[in-house]
Design goal:
Helix content: over 70%
Order of helices and strands: HHHH
Oligomer: single chain
Number of strands: 0
Distance between the termini: 7 Å
Structural class: mainly alpha
Shape: flat
Number of helices: 4
Strand content: under 5%
Largest sheet: none
Length: about 110
Amino acid sequence: MTAPLATIGWYILAALGEIGGCFAFWTVLRLDKSPWWLAPGALALAFFAFALTRVEAEAAGRAFAAYGGIYIVASLVWLRLVEGVSPDRWDLLGGLICLGGAALILWGPGRT
């Protein structure tokens, strides 16, 4: 079993790839930016898929399910740092609940 810090690291890298890639498409389709944004966006999404395969889990579905919690928290960080919008207390509480769920999926009793 890979160390939890390595797993978390891969999840964070996957989240950066997915959010960055999706945001590139968002900028083209919603903010009328140049279609040239799509090339780095596609590369970022490919990196996301690669990074997610590096997570230690006995089944892809479990790795993907746990990733959901990381993605939600990373999206809230993106909201603040990139878009300049502060998450409210409900965003933060929801993120904490999701992280707890991700931890249970990956490292709950009988998984370590």
